[in-house]
Design a protein that fits this description.
78% helix; 12 helices; 3% strand; three-stranded mixed beta sheet
Length: 313
């Protein structure tokens, strides 16, 4: 059978964290709980922002977009993992694997871009408060989010099309809990040079250096402006306003960097999978808690929403 034909009719096998039957119920319960908490928490953030007119601002528009991207991000990997654990079947079709890769890269890229846009929004709000409404108008915000979607989808499409050209001869085992692109490239029996170049150079530049540089520049300017505020209360209020976003950025990039370094050093290690869990599951799960606990506007709007829900019931 030709490699191309074999690819079109075969399946990949996701090894996951453990093949021990005794560990399966624990893994299933843990990841199901995290998935439910993530989806409900981010849905609650979205509903809170939609239902409260005080939150119809660029900052919370980006936050609602981030919550939506987080729901989609975790939904690309965990449901399939839960089904595999429940059915004791670790296989995923070739088409399913490529599809999972595509959407994983799309929503992961969107998280990166949205965090960068939120940093820019904070920069304009703190450093140019008098011109904030002029600069961060609804038209610009919509265009920025649409551009982020377009770039993420185009990059993911290029990687997916390159994956479709690869041949897989005998090794169909991916030592991960989802179809991770770097893992799939290691088991291909055809030339993967172009895919590796696109993966590491484009990811490093497009999803790493450029967004991180934008965030770093924004917060350098923000801190410089805040330190010029004469009042201690004013400085504290300004820092607390940026605290939620800065916490999310630190968590996202800290775990993302851990995944990148782990995959580069030892792509098949158990530690790399644990780092991936921090990046793909824990970060989207904690984002709603960070914003609801550290952001007064979200906290108050959430309390009002819950009171209305309880009153209706």
């Amino acid at each position: 059978m030709e490699p191309g034909n074999q690819t079109s009719t075969s399946e990949f096998f996701l090894l996951g964290f453990s093949q021990d039957p005794e560990h399966q119920p624990i893994l299933f319960g843990m990841f199901l709980s995290m998935f439910v908490v993530t989806v409900l928490g981010n849905l609650l953030i979205i509903l809170t922002i939609i239902s409260d007119s005080h939150l119809h601002t660029p900052m919370y528009f980006f936050l609602a977009s981030l919550s939506l991207a987080d729901i989609c991000f975790i939904s690309t990997t965990i449901p399939k993992m839960l089904v595999n654990i429940q059915t004791q079947n670790r296989s995923i079709t070739y088409a399913g694997c490529i599809t999972q890769m595509y959407f994983f890269m799309v929503f992961g890229g969107m998280d990166t871009f949205l965090l960068t846009l939120m940093a820019y929004d904070q920069f304009v709000a703190v450093c140019h408060p008098l011109h904030y409404l002029v600069i961060m108008n609804l038209h610009l915000c919509g265009l920025l989010v649409l551009a982020s979607w377009f770039i993420s989808m185009m990059y993911s499409l290029m990687q997916s099309l390159l994956m479709l050209r690869l041949s897989f001869c005998t090794n169909w085992v991916i030592q991960h809990f989802y179809c991770e692109l770097a893992q799939a490239l290691t088991i291909a029996c055809s030339d993967t040079l172009v895919s590796h170049i696109l993966l590491y150079i484009m990811v490093t530049a497009l999803l790493g250096i450029v967004p991180f540089a934008g965030i770093l520049f924004s917060y350098t300017q923000i801190v410089s402006s805040i330190l010029k505020i004469p009042s201690a209360d004013g400085r504290y209020k300004a820092f607390s306003t940026c605290g939620s976003h800065l916490s999310v950025v630190s968590l996202f990039y800290g775990t993302g960097l851990g995944v990148y370094l782990s995959s580069g050093a030892s792509p098949s290690s158990w530690k790399a999978m644990v780092a991936s869990v921090m990046y793909t599951v824990v970060t989207p799960m904690l984002n709603p808690f960070i914003y609801s606990l550290r952001n007064r506007d979200i906290n108050r709007a959430l309390q009002r929403l819950l009171r209305r829900i309880l009153y209706v019931q």
